[in-house]
């Protein structure tokens, strides 16, 4: 049996200045190639969990194994390199670079990771073609989109650029934080199709956080954060939109 794509053990995470834990996770595993849907009320720690998995936030104790590597034990630089090589991130706030064009944003991971660059070139012939293919699959073609700075795109368009950026160079783990929240139904559907078809081709693992539980049937597994995070109950301050249709 291969090692899990993600393995958390005895993870405790506390935000600076907080007197309570945001994450208290005895164990959580995700198998390679698995597509997991994670839900939970606003403020319960979903984004915090994804930050820990991406090595953006470091827990005060516990093991965070990603693709067999204990990223909690890496140096900051080692973690940055590991993330660039192996993880495709779609942030809740997108984190696009405003002064770069759409294509430049999509290709950003390839600047930081020779490995992602090689994989993109192997898939599509050259980097530009790889970016354009991914963008066209999320409907971002025509009207000179490619050259436009991302700052003058709509929120839904920015979300699609962020998805193309996460997928370029076929990273083994895709982490997506509310990636469809700003998309209308049609675009949401093509977005999910792109995500699933890319992931199937590269046999990547997907962790997908959303409030919209109508989507959960499309995943291999749906899990509430509170099922594996003992701290989830005490945290949630926001409205409980769990049962809402997003
Ligand atoms: N950078 C930060 N510094 C301090 N506290 C933070 C920070 N980010 C999040 N928190 C706190 O951690 C808790 C969990 O927040 P988190 O963003 O993980 O929730 P979430 O489940 O993703 O919520 P939402 O569904 O609204 O996105 C909240 O109480 C929040 O205030
Ligand atoms: Mg969040």
Question: How would you explain this protein's 3D organization?
Answer:
It is globular and about 50 Å long. Helix 5 crosses helix 6. The protein contains 10 helices and 9 strands. The protein has helices at 46-53, 76-86, 102-106, 108-112, 114-124, 127-137, 155-167, 185-202, 225-228, 232-235, and strands spanning 6-13, 23-30, 35-39, 61-66, 69-70, 87-90, 173-177, 205-209, 221-224. The longest helix has 18 residues, at 185-202. The chain has a 5-stranded parallel sheet. Strands 2-1-4-5 form a 4-stranded antiparallel sheet, covered by helices on one side. Helix content is 37%, strand content 19%. The chain has 246 residues and is of the alpha/beta class. It has one domain (6-234): Rossmann fold (3-Layer(aba) Sandwich), CATH 3.40.50.300. Bound molecules: adenosine-5'-triphosphate and magnesium ion. Residues 46-47, 92, 177 line the site of magnesium ion.
Mean pLDDT: 89
Shape: globular
Low-confidence stretches: 238-246
SS content category: alpha/beta
Highest-level CATH class: Alpha Beta
Which radius of gyration do the C-alpha atoms yield? 18 Å
In order across it, which strands form the biggest sheet? 6-7-8-3-9
Give me the strand/helix succession.
Answer: EEEHEEHEHHHHHEHEEHH
Largest sheet: 5 strands, parallel
Bound molecules: adenosine-5'-triphosphate, magnesium ion
What is the total tally of β strands?
9
Q: CATH topology, what is it called?
A: Rossmann fold
CATH H-level superfamily title: P-loop containing nucleotide triphosphate hydrolases
Whole-number tally of structural domains = 1
Strand content: 15-25%
Question: Helix proportion of residues, in percent?
Answer: 25-40%
Distance between the termini: 38 Å
